[in-house]
Amino acid sequence: MAEVSENRRLRVNMGINPEDFSWILERHDAFHCPEVIMTYSACGLGDMSRDLHRLMRMQLMPKRWREELCPILINTWEAQYFNVNHENVIELAREASKADIEMIVLDDGWFGERNDASSSLGDWYVNKAKFPFGIEGLAREIEALGMKFGIWLEPEMVNYDSQLHRNHPDWSLHVPTRHRTTGRNQFVLDFSRKDVREYIFQQLYELLRSAPISYVKWDMNRHLTEVFSQHLAPDRQGEVAHRFIMGVYEVLGRITTAFPDILFETCSGGGGRFDAGMLYYSPQIWTSDNTDAVSRAFIQYGTSLVYPVRSMGAHISTVPNHQTYRMATLKTRTIMAMMGTFGFEMDPRHWTEEEMLEVRASVSMYKRFAKLINYGDLFRLWSPFDSDSMAWMHVAPDKQEAIVFAVNIRREVGRLNPLLQLGGLAPNMMYSVEELLPGTLARNMQTGTIEKTAQAVYQYGRVLAVSGTSLMNAGIPIKFIFDSDSACFHVYARASF
């Protein structure tokens, strides 16, 4: 907690939340408090963020993944939800491979008797009715398409309707004398218990060694309630919540050590557990289950205050969006996904020929600029919380190039378009400003209507030559004509003057 006193002194309280926490420390025992990351900047939030981004990328994230980019993946969730099987996953992968997407992730619905959210969490064995060739057979066939394979898990949870709960009803957090409450039809496993942790580790170990799996999405879809362990004495129940998360860290540490070449992405109903502790084990976290492009402008902007873009899971999803029913152009959805790890939550079997070409172009563009986006210095330019638009840019450490993203949130007809002042460039350097991802909509100047065009629509129609000083002080005009319109520019050095 941070607060500024009446005499303008900042007081910061850090550490374990004392509510419902206690710890009995026996003689000669030690208790290790959580570590805290701090930084200081006299140059505002932007400089503070860049310090934190570098610290997390270079010191906190797993060494194995600090210099390696996330593969461009497509996830089955919004395409199929629980209705996955061998045939439709292969169909999705086959179509996705045509767009040069590099990995397919099998999300929820592949295990136990899982056909909806009411059963089978904890039963981490393949549903042979859906996947008769097992996970290995599926993964091998996907490999034959030239793609990698990933899988979804929720190791900390158990359903009432599961073999695990029937065999071990005492393994979930609950107060024995009270009715157990569920969230998303599930209970929380008691990870403060060594026997629970060992069982889950062995389940995960056997699964991950059984097939060529390159990626794991580790999810957690409910809050901890009734935080009571039957394994601990009544006077030690204040230790359960802390022991739980330390148990999660232990299992994550063991499984990532056993499989160092598997990329882990953690998740908690989206970004519910987006923190430095998780980044120590997984270099990326699913930022939100809300994949709407406009919502993501707010979500990813706020997340970027502390966490680097490399860590922010972000995917292009279909329209109308499944969470907000909002429409946005494929260009805008692409730009928002590029402001993160860049992937897909779509069904490529339904793409038109035009959409397939557009997706392939966006995949190619992301691969071209991925290092700049993930390892460049981030400069936030427009805040969606303070304006009608959101914009930021990634600048190479040597200031030789940058990529700029801008998204309109709300467009008021007749309002003047703003000038976008860039940041982080070399003042005395001449830059070329080239638009990427042109639009396909333009205003008919005779009728005032917005119409789809046969030709690509550019902001300027040519490459601009502008000095760093002019770009950072005067700025460049951005022409937004509709809600969720967007623009993307490559800025690169020409010569000093």
UniProtKB/TrEMBL annotation:
Keyword Hydrolase found: yes
Keywords, sorted A to Z: Glycosidase, Hydrolase
EC number: 3.2.1.22
Protein name: alpha-galactosidase
The Glycosyl hydrolase family 36 C-terminal domain, residue ranges: 390-490
Pfam family, one: Glyco_hydro_36C
GO annotation terms (biological process): carbohydrate catabolic process
Catalytic reactions on record: Hydrolysis of terminal, non-reducing alpha-D-galactose residues in alpha-D-galactosides, including galactose oligosaccharides, galactomannans and galactolipids
Database matches in Gene3D superfamilies: Aldolase class I, alpha-galactosidase from lactobacil brevis, Golgi alpha-mannosidase II
Gene Ontology molecular function terms on file: alpha-galactosidase activity
InterPro entries, sorted: Aldolase_TIM, Alpga-gal_N_sf, Alpha-glycosidase_related, GH, Glyco_hydro_36, Glyco_hydro_36_C, Glyco_hydro_b
Enzyme class: hydrolase
